[in-house]
Amino acid sequence: MEGEKHVSISFDVFAEPSEEERVEFRAEDSESCSFEFQVTEAPPRFVRLISDYSTFVGASVCFQCLVSGSPRPSVCWYKDGVLLEGDRYCEQEEQNDITRSLIVSSEEGRNEGYSSGLQLPDREKTLEFELGKPVYFSKAKMKIEDEGKAPVFLKQVSDVEVWQGDVARLSVTVTGSPTPKIQWFLNSTKLIPCTDCKLVFAGNDHSLILPYAGVQDEGEYTCVASNVHGETSCSAQLHVRQRKPGFPCFAREPDSVRCAPGFTAVFEYTVVGKPCPDVLWSKGSEQLFSDARHSIAHRPDGSGSLTVWDCVEEDTGLYTCRAVSALGEATCSAELLVLPKERVVTLEPAELVKGTNPILQCEVAGTGPFEISWYKDKKQIRSSKKYRLTSQKAVISLEVSSFNSADVGEYECVIANEVGKCMCSATYILKGQDWEKPYFIKLHFAEGSASLEIKHLDANDAGVYICRATNSAGSKESSSTLFIKGLAICFIFLGILLIL
Questions:
Q1: Taking every annotated instance into account, which residue ranges of this chain make up the domain Ig-like (predicted)?
Q2: Would 156 be classed as within a structural domain?
Q3: CA-based R_g, the chain, Å
């Protein structure tokens, strides 16, 4: 009709099962229209696919997928293309029939392939179109390991006795396949990790750590290791010795020290107790006193130190600090390690035969790890086809392949550790070759005349020499042959006159 407006609108609808929608359109001049529609069919699809599994003999597994479609799709499960039936397979539907699960109970081990198929129910013919039964699949594999092993304790937990307030550590070593689950119990009560009870592990080693053991922590501790193949346990007792009021105790224990010869090592501590304990130091079975090499300080507040002056390698060892009072004593120890500097069996100069593969060796003594570098004429050498660098215990080697005139020069080995470094060097020449300082060939050019001066001629200098003059207009060459007649020749000039 005249004056009527016609608008054509198209849009896509993403369907969910039996979901009704109302769409409203409104123009800028406030004219609007609306209509309702209902999605009656939507193909099945996997919102989430099933995943591969790897498990062990005796275990159960659950495959799970998320599906959608309208009408509600039927779900079938297959293993290697065969429809699954029987009591071993349990199908579940959850969350408004969207989540589907297949639980497979234990059976003998083998690799198995599972799939989930979605299929729409039969639909009637409409006009000339016939709707079939589209089927959609999600596939996954389950790998069952043929071998498994029940947990076995390689090291069982042992009884522990500590002073009140000290650290208590109970440890086991256990193996099994799959990796066992570890649980700790105190007097049959399961322990939960917290600040006062830490559970740590590294590989097959597992530990229960009580940072501040108290009387309430005494009792029987049991470690239980379990997996799908079995369970085992071991137990031990923790005894906590109570400290009497004023009993000596180290609030700060001395730290171990590493230093180079000639340096000073200091061990510091803080001890508490009432009355304030006396402190004694010893190295091994030898008691230490203040002297020219040692200084012992103990202050009324319980802090103190042991100082070792000008350390030498003989000072290396375990130092023990004892705090003693009428109520008892407490001890602690720290180690002093004096790292020796490297001592090198040096390289020796040598004349080497051309074409041989010489091995340059030096020997080092000291505390590793070492950083080793080789140099030729101050330029660092890297491992290559020409050079082979090796280090075996104290022997350090450099092998030179097919030694020739280009390899002649000074070789240097530099060895370093955290204390310092040392080096040795030697010069290697070809056998029968005189070693002399290098000299320069001189070139002269002045007022159109150019010359080449060669000093200290030998037989190798004989041959044809070419002089080439070049400018923007072109180039010109002139050649001359040099013959060596005898040792009496000291130098020669070869010259040409350039006409420019």
A1: 44-113, 151-239, 248-337, 340-483
A2: yes
A3: 45
CA distances, 82 to each of 79, 112, 114, 350 (Å): 5, 11, 9, 81
- Check pLDDT > 70 for residue 330: yes
Note whether 156 and 172 are within 8 A (CB): yes
Query: Residue 143 and residue 161: Cα distance in Å, rounded?
Result: 47
Residue partners of 35: CB distance under 8 A and separation at least 6: 22, 23
pLDDT digits (tens, 9 = 90+) for 465-487: 888 888 777 778 888 887 776 54
Q: Is 314 exposed, middle or buried (0-12, 13-18, 19+ CB in 10 A)?
A: exposed
Domain identity same for 127 and 175: no
Q: Hunting for tokens 């050019």 — which residue is that? A: 445
**Contact indicator for 7, 58 with CB cutoff of 8 Å:** no
Q: Which token pair is 446?
A: 């002045």
Nearest to residue 115, comparing CAs of 139, 83, 143?
Answer: 139
For residue range 149-185, list pLDDT tens digits in order.
899 999 999 999 888 878 899 999 999 988 899 999 9
Find out whether 220 and 239 touch, Cβ atoms under 8 Å: no
Q: Is residue 27 part of a domain?
A: no
Name the residue range of residue 454's domain.
442-497
B/e letters for 348-372, b = 16+ CB within 10 Å, e = fewer, are eeeebeeeeebebebebebbeebeb
Using CA atoms, how far apart are residues 205 and 202, in angstroms rounded to an integer?
A: 5
CA distances (Å), origin 140, targets 111, 137, 178, 213: 11, 10, 22, 51
User: What's the number of domains the chain is made of?
Assistant: 5
Decide: 349 and 382 in contact? Cβ < 8 Å: no
How many Å apart are CA 329 and CA 416, to the nearest integer? 44
CATH number for the domain including 377? 2.60.40.10
